[in-house]
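step 3/5: co-fold with 2-acetamido-2-deoxy-beta-D-glucopyranose
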Amino acid sequence: MKMKEFILLSVILLLCNECYNLSDFSHYKNKSVFNVSDVYLNSELLIKKYQYPFENHYVTTKDGYVLNVYRIPSQGPPVLLVHGIADSSDSWLVLGPENSLAFLLADVGFDVWLINSRGNKYSKKNVKSTPKEKFWRFTFEEIGTKDLPATIDYVLNKTREEKLTYIGFSQGTTSFLVLCSLIPEYNAKIKNSILLAPIAWVNNMKHPFIETVALNFHKLSYLVNKFQFYEVFSSNRVQNKYHAYVCKQESLSNILCVLEYFLSYGLSNSSHISKNKFPIVASHIPAGTSSFSFLHYIQNYILKRFQSFNYYIESNWSTNQYLRKLPEYDLSKVSAPITLFVSDSDWFTDKKDVNKLKRSLKSIVGYHLISARDFSHLEFVYGSRAKKLVYTKLFEILSMFN
Ligand SMILES: *[C@@H]1O[C@H](CO)[C@@H](O)[C@H](O)[C@H]1NC(C)=O
Ligand SMILES: *[C@@H]1O[C@H](CO)[C@@H](O)[C@H](O)[C@H]1NC(C)=O
Ligand SMILES: *[C@@H]1O[C@H](CO)[C@@H](O)[C@H](O)[C@H]1NC(C)=O
Ligand SMILES: *[C@@H]1O[C@H](CO)[C@@H](O)[C@H](O)[C@H]1NC(C)=O
Ligand SMILES: *[C@@H]1O[C@H](CO)[C@@H](O)[C@H](O)[C@H]1NC(C)=O
Ligand SMILES: *[C@@H]1O[C@H](CO)[C@@H](O)[C@H](O)[C@H]1NC(C)=O
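step 4/5: write tokens
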């Protein structure tokens, strides 16, 4: 097939909900969850299917967002898992009990808490009837200063503990660093933190579109405002089915999946996401977030700074030159113990940026460089090699602190 045909096919698949034989979960209502493919299961059903105990908690932030927080309860020490941008608690579950971190942590006795940060498919409520443009006005800074403290306090209260273990991936590391620098009293509530693919400065990010996007940053911000594109990469059934279909290795249109995952995330070898799990992973992402969440990283790429977001740019489309330098997040305030897991082949964590982060943090207790060939960004949570190359070491570190 030629490129044109691939594109045509992908459009047809996207538009044609029932062209291929993937049914909606409602068709399975009368079947036991055990008989339903993981492709269709949300966090709750994945946990139940694999016969782990399950609890659903609702955490309300200071500014009224209602976060859906899942728990695999146990008497052990609490651990909070924080997903990446436009992702959800599903990310810690989709590889199943053998390979996904939430299950592996539960197996060794941790009390596992899975956050869903504001705006993703599980956390779309606000107790106040917030207008759209206000609801979506957030980035990793609000996640760090509102969602994380509310959730950490909730978990510590429920478990009657003084500290918890924090594990974040990608944006889940950015918001952690923002929290510990802007509200430093939270450092004392962190027993130990593990930052997978840590992102603070993105000055040298290698994404193939980043330059083009950066050059058009002011236009993008203007469009977001003008056409109210406040929510991006939201989860929808058609897209999930499309992803489940094209990401089957044996499917004819698999190249669409391969291209998308390379161009979006730098995944250069699709067999690094285990063969039979790829459709399951792909059907669960993306899970939605605000446009500003992405624009914030792009702004920082342009300014070469790790700082707050200039919201006023949204109505100012003349040029990027009006981007204001705001104070950088003060990482000298971060004092919670931190272990970094970094890969050489991760587009989003260039060596120079990671070195700058390392120099700025005074509480690093461990640093692990994964030098395996082509270990790309998503593999920290979705990779077939993550258990061997990341989690083995991660469990050693956790046992030193518990
Ligand atoms: C289509 O899906 C239904 C429901 O899961 C199943 O019973 C049927 O066998 C499938 N048909 C084909 C051709 O795979
Ligand atoms: C599910 O089962 C109930 C009774 O057990 C039945 O009334 C209903 O029609 C079934 N629904 C479907 C979609 O099969
Ligand atoms: C559903 O799964 C259960 C447990 O694996 C099994 O015992 C049962 O026969 C399955 N039912 C159907 C309709 O496939
Ligand atoms: C802690 O939880 C109890 C009930 O479990 C509640 O009454 C109390 O207000 C909570 N405290 C805080 C600080 O959230
Ligand atoms: C892709 O990964 C698989 C499994 O690690 C490996 O066997 C294969 O050689 C890799 N392919 C390329 C082109 O690197
Ligand atoms: C853009 O922002 C700058 C700096 O705040 C301001 O001087 C300029 O007038 C603004 N332009 C528009 C079109 O709003």
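step 5/5: annotate
Residues 14-27 have pLDDT under 50 and may be disordered.
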